[in-house]
Design goal:
Elements: H1 10-16, H2 40-45, H3 48-59, H4 64-74, H5 84-90, H6 96-108
Helix pairs in contact: 3-4, 3-5
Length: 115
């Protein structure tokens, strides 16, 4: 996870402390261990859709470990909504064998709600 630290004056620090500068954005899957270091407060402030999107990005990696870590970091469970959103993202994992294996693992855990 790229990170840059810089010393700032008070004016710039005040401007950058606003909520729009504290968003967590994941356009590419993070390694499974990185989800535990995401700022919990920032994640919990996100909408359900935004938290689901973080899990979708993990699912698109094809790694069940990353999905588990993202689900834990976002405090999402299958009780919040049906699992179609997660299975749809898992089906987009690179490589047909990877996508199928991840979908089967998620279905075995009960994420498949409709046939």
């Amino acid at each position: 996870m790229p990170l840059t630290l810089r010393l700032l004056n008070k004016t710039i620090a005040t401007v950058l402390s606003s909520p729009e500068h504290k968003r967590v954005r994941a356009s590419q899957p993070l390694p499974a261990h990185a989800y535990s270091s995401l700022p919990a407060a920032a994640i919990q402030r996100g909408s359900t859709w935004q938290r689901e999107e973080l899990v979708r990005v993990a699912a698109r990696s094809g790694s069940l470990e990353a999905v588990d870590a993202a689900l834990a970091a976002t405090c999402l469970s299958k009780c919040l909504s049906n699992g179609d959103w997660l299975l749809g993202a898992a089906a987009e994992a690179p490589g047909p064998g990877v996508a199928l294996a991840l979908c089967q693992q998620l279905a075995a855990r009960g994420w498949l709600t409709r046939v």
